[in-house]
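Retro notes, structure queue

What went well: the backlog is down to a handful. What didn't: a couple of records were mislabeled last round, so from now on we paste the full input next to the output in the thread. Example, using phosphoenolpyruvate carboxykinase (GTP) from Owenia fusiformis:
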Amino acid sequence: MGRIETTSVPEQLPVTFLKQARLAHSTKTAVEANLASLNVIHGDMDKLAPKVRNYVEENAMICQPSAIHICDGSETENTSLLKMLEKEGVIKPLSKYENCWLAKTDPADVARVESKTFISTPKKRDTIPTPKDGVKGTLGNWMSPEKLQNSLNDRFPGCMKGRTMYVIPFSMGPVGSPLSKIGVQCTDSAYVVASMRVMTRMGQKVLDTLGNGDFINALHSVGQPLPMAKPPVNNWPCNPEKTIVAHIPENNEICSFGSGYGGNSLLGKKCFALRLGSIIARDEGWLAEHMLILGITNPQGQKKYVAAAFPSACGKTNLAMMNPSLPGWKVECVGDDIAWMRFDDEGRLRAINPEAGFFGVAPGTSDSTNPNAMKTVRSNTIFTNVAETSDGGFFWEGMENEVDPNSKITSWLGEENWKAGGKPAAHPNSRFCTPAAQCPIMDPLWEDAKGVPIDAIIFGGRRPKGVPLVYEAFNWRHGVFMGAAMRSESTAAAEHKGKVIMHDPFAMRPFFGYNFGDYLKHWLSMEQKPNRHLPKIFHVNWFRKGDDNKFMWPGFGENVRVLDWICRRVNNDDCGKDSAIGIIPKTDAINLDGLTDSVDMDAIFNLPKDFWQQEVKEIRKYFDEQVNVDLPDEIDNQLNGLRERVKKM
Ligand code: GTP
Ligand code: SPV
Ligand code: MN
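Corresponding output:
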């Protein structure tokens, strides 16, 4: 503790992007005055390695918080922050459980904001493909360095006035693992600190490992200096009009302003592990993907690991912790959202989960759909925008049979004595933030520094029509094409309105750190190195709907039947047959033993020719308009191949 001792500002600080902007508008004396007035209320600036200290001082100079708190990650620190948040009315305890909390946000700040998420590089084409003339690009948002500098300069100076700036050293991946990477996030939100403590490994041990090494620079502000002109809604300060989530790959820097929610504010997750992560991965020859990782063991004791990419709110968390309905099968969870994967010296693709917690969709989660998640969230969990029950519990859509019928429900919007029929009790993107270690089925190797060997990669999405339950790629290239051609119904995870089928290649559309065409080339290049055991690639769809508009497949624990077929295909079992779109299960090859729901398997695997002709056209249009000249020839060939096969259907 103590005040920052600074007699002079070095002429040559390592200059982050933001600081260039700030220093251009500030005199050295003013900077010194700011620094000298800073009040360190927790931790010791003198003990920080020079690079970390510079970053903290720089952010403090710009944002002008009233105090600095360097997080040690301890239980004591966490408890006192939670108490403070409770006192401020940001969170309240859910007394039915141990150390569980409910936060309600300003209803204007409930999800990622893709339209305000930018990547800034000197050359636009490094970040996004050039769409065809007259077409608006949808594969990410680029901003010029000059414009970003102005935007940041318009927002960050003085943005933390009256607030404490927390310094969060965090590791993505187990602390000290050669596959892990370190970041330092400065934020003026204690809710973010408590959440980052769940989602990442954070605190003193990370600083010890980092030494004076390099790290990802992550700055976050809710964008509401004190005193606020108007009091915050739900004690949740945010600044939706001015929200911006900016990435500056050249500097390994993230600057996020105006939102306290999820991927906008927990900067280790999408900003670091996916957007900047995918760039680092390309440069270093590996893959950073929006994928769950699970281990699956068949009744004979044979175990495989699988990674699966589904778009936001399309079933990753549920699959990652599934409770298999087939007797003798076991699923174990390595991660539910992000996979960092690289080929090892033996040519096997190995994956780690860079996260330490789950930021999972609450609605739909129940003892019947995801009992392992329900067990995980009963302690040490922060819930956001769910409903509460009068007996101190949580509630959301899907839990109707699991609450005391005598208890009263208060909706996330504060509607007391809430009853089904009107607005939902919980926001559709309400979430639990819970430690992975508490999940009863964590894989024994989930924190293994080497990562787990991946046998199969699965793509999937919400496809109400035409797309079968499962099919397999003919080979790696075809699999990469399948990832590129992914489409899915939009969900509440971002600001999209209505249920439209959107292209979401690799489930990464909101998370690409660089030009999607180059990303495809990177994926294709995986095949070009010798002696690699390339995982087989599959596509699944749990969400096909019948004429009655109901899901045709029961999903959840029953999905093990599909994983069973996938595992057999990985073993080269002769249980598949060629179709126009890929390899599909032979008749009766999906084990339906004990399935109580009646499922029309013919309908679920039916491939309507007109649908697929339309699909080919739509993919063609998307590639032409959006990826344009950056589309690799191989992907073009793959689409032509599909078109020809569909013609012959
Ligand atoms: P993000 O955290 O946003 O990346 O989402 P996610 O991909 O982890 O999705 P999640 O597993 O949280 O599921 C989102 C919603 O889909 C929840 O409401 C689930 O109940 C529902 N869901 C998941 N799996 C299935 C399934 O097999 N069938 C059906 N019908 N719904 C499912
Ligand atoms: C997603 O949207 O894919 C999420 C939630 O996992 S968030 O952390 O908000 O990005
Ligand atoms: Mn996600």
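Agreed that this is the format going forward. Reviewer comment attached to the example: The longest strand covers residues 164-172.
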